[in-house]
Amino acid sequence: MLRISNHYVSRVVFVLLFVEVLILIGSAYAGAALRVYEDGKTTLPPGLDNFLVSAIAYAIAIVFSMSALGMYQLNLTEGLRNPFFQKLLPSFAMGFCILTLLFYVAPNLYFGRGIMLLVFMIGAGGIFVARTIFLKTSEARKFESRILFVGGGALANECRELANRDQVYHRYEIAGFIAMPSEESRVPASTLLEVRGGESLLTLARRHDVEEIVVSVENRRGGAFPIKELLECKLYGVKVIDAATFFERETSQIRVDSLQPSWLVFGGGFDQSFIRIFVKRTFDLVVSGTLLVVSLPVMFLTALAIFIEDRAPIFYQQERVGTNGETFKVLKFRSMYNDAEKGGKPQWAAQNDPRVTRVGNFIRKCRIDELPQILNVFKGEMSFVGPRPERPYFVEQLTEQVPYYNVRHSIKPGITGWAQVRYGYGASVDDAVQKLQYDLYYVKNNSLFLDLLILIDTLKVVMGSHGR
């Protein structure tokens, strides 16, 4: 895995993305060359003197569309049929729409209908070939990593289950587990490694061709914990990480049940510098302003539909908890009936909530109900990307029941967030814990790069009508 702005990115996906960008840029030049050859000319037509910029714009539009449709959330067991027929062709159709809008705004980038048809045909074929080669390579076990776990208890068994699941980005081959005398074994006996007399941990790792050691011991106190041997392994090129980092890397979450406070204190991340705050605020204003202009017709039609179905009010304000625990009024399109909480007691919102109107059901699925929160962003009460703000009633409960819940209030809440695109609806304390683990990951690793990824994932959720 690579780390880009604190966010873990699969090396496989990074390489695949890089190759496909080159294929798309190459397909633009190939299409233009074929078109020029057909016309019997030796130079590019007028208007194509800045063709490299046009080719890059085309590649970005297609890659953005493929990302929005989930083509870089790889599933190696899917095969080619699903991504090619259900995702690739719609991705190029979406890319065509984006390019049409781009050419309208910047006509100097337009490179002609004849060239565009050839470019799209060559590009789609090149992507199909690249994905075919990628899948064949992955079947040859080229992307497996051999790992060894220090520990054999409950935490180690959880790590084993995580490593053995059908990996989206890469696979693991578990060399084995080294049992610790301080904990009861919970892993299969056949996976426990025998340490030969006088054999060091480094020698054992080399004997089993181990690339990485994961320390999955719940209690590291006592003389039995091999801290010096782990240091030796790290000094001689074997990567050593702890279970918390392993979970963070593989699930994009920060586990709260086995988290040590020292890991949060001494670990990296949690960037709240002036530069980060300035960049994020600028990002919020640019994205929110653009979205406001683009969505004005949609917002007008939504307001009209709400009034026709259930009359006024069109909007509703609700108290939410924001940065540093301060409350504010969040603005949304009303998606529930006027008497949704007759008793006055707050209730969890459910996925098929009977209190939701027909219009409300649609705008919640498409997240149109969140659009008025753009005004909260302009006021500085919210960010465009961040943990979703909760009501004070639920915050009070969750703070008592869920460890580290208040950490999510160290940054501004958002219209969309990492938990919303990764988990979906939350209607219980257990759901709140799962979403908190995603929120903690965002608070720790937030960056402009991660914000852009969340925006792309949000578009995918809206188009697929999933999540919340």
From TrEMBL:
- Signal peptide feature range: none
The answer on whether this UniProt entry bears the keyword Repressor reads: no
What superkingdom heads the lineage? Answer: Bacteria
Any Gene Ontology CC annotation: membrane
- TM ranges: 12-31, 51-72, 84-104, 110-134, 285-308
Q: Where in the cell is it found?
A: Membrane
This protein's membrane topology, according to the annotation, is: Multi-pass membrane protein
UniProt key word Metal-binding: no
Q: Which UniProt keywords apply?
A: Membrane, Transferase, Transmembrane, Transmembrane helix
Molecular function (GO) terms for this protein are: phosphotransferase activity, for other substituted phosphate groups
Q: Which family does it belong to?
A: Belongs to the bacterial sugar transferase family.
The name under which this protein is listed is Sugar transferase
The organism encoding this protein is Massilia violaceinigra
